[in-house]
Amino acid sequence: MAQGRFLTGATFFFFFLCLNRPGQSLHNNASMNISDFKALVYTRSCSMQSLASSNITGKIVLCYAPAEAAITPPRLALPIVINRTMEAGAKGLIFAQYDANILDILTMCKGNMACVVVDFEIAHTILTYLDKTNILAAKGNTYVFMSGTSMACPHVSAVVALLKSAHPDWSPAMIKSAIITTASVIDHFGVLIQAEGVPRKLADPFDFGGGHIDPDKAVDPGLVYDMNARDYNKFLNCTDELLDNCKSYISNLNLPSIAMPDLKDNITVRRTVMNVGPVEATYRVTVEAPTGVIVTVEPSMISFTRGGSKSMMFTVMFTSRKRVQGGYTIGSLTWSDENTHSVRIPIAVQTVVQDFVRDTS
Predict the structure, then answer these.
(1) What pLDDT, in 10s, does the model give residues 69-127?
(2) How confident is the model at residue 155 (pLDDT cuts 50, 70, 90)?
(3) Half-sphere exposure of 221 (CA within 13 A, CB side)
(4) Which residues contact 73 (CB under 8 A, 6 or more apart)?
(5) CB-based burial of residue 262 (10 Å sphere; 0-12 exposed, 13-18 middle, 19+ buried)?
(6) Domain boundaries, the chain
(7) pLDDT reported for residue 163
(8) What is the pLDDT of residues 230-240, one digit of tens each?
(9) Contact 261, 121 (CB under 8 A)
(10) How far apart are CA 49 and CA 51, in angstroms?
(11) Structurally, what CATH architecture does the domain formed by 2-130 represent?
(12) Is the CB of residue 272 less than 8 Å from the CB of residue 311?
């Protein structure tokens, strides 16, 4: 994307790639350089008028489903939008639809044009992210502050380099887990982090992810949530339903976070932690349940012994106590030992009593 920004979405089609090359990304063109990236243009609607009034030639288009999509099934509206953007010379499409669960009815973009489908919430996140300017960095010897999203990446990249130096055998997922699970949700005044805006509000994982990163703690996280390329491969292929048991793969991807976008009654997910701290250790769980949700963790205590397994799996069951529909509520799950390790992951749950649009479409 323009200005070197990267966004990750669910592609319409995923190709099985060589997974036995450590250190390489899952991209099938290793010779790709920065000149291959395209600018992003936001055309608001995917209607013919909006696309025609914007210069989208050679660019990636982000647009919302046109008005006719409200009365036209997605399987009919989407090919029309794809053809419009291709005829206008676009090189990619990010299509925002109320219900993004339509991958099974999509047809391949002609000419290998990149296509991604997202729901309205994700599309709004992309827009606000592109406009965000409240990341600061010191400049020169006078420590003048500069503002911009690009200031956040060097900070985290430096911490990643430190962790990789201290633990050369750690995978990218382990490093990511160490940074997220040891981050703090308390600011330097000793109070919960607040999100900027008018009016101000308490920040949540959608604002700060894991929180303020703490490199000292990240070097010794105690436990990590690890994954490899094959785990991502299963997950990405499930977005196009190329594999069986996809529901299990998607909900149980071993991320250092848990998100439930459509909790109706109860859902159980699995996570696995790996011990990278003392060989003999016992961890107990503490849960801050999202409002209106009962969270049950089994087992509530895990122990590691010399000569035993370094990994332990646990289950988390979410049960809704709400009879009203609303937005996401936030919580956390923390494993703590008797020493200094506190391994925290964020939880976000949205209770859905009835999906009115899907039920009536």
Answers:
(1) 556 666 677 778 888 888 888 888 888 876 655 554 445 566 667 888 887 778 887 77
(2) confident
(3) 33
(4) 361
(5) exposed
(6) 2-130, 136-224
(7) 97
(8) 888 888 877 66
(9) no
(10) 6
(11) 3-Layer(bba) Sandwich (3.50)
(12) yes
For position 10, what pLDDT does the model report? 45
pTM across the whole model: 0.61
Determine contact, residues 59/38, Cβ cutoff 8 Å.
Answer: yes
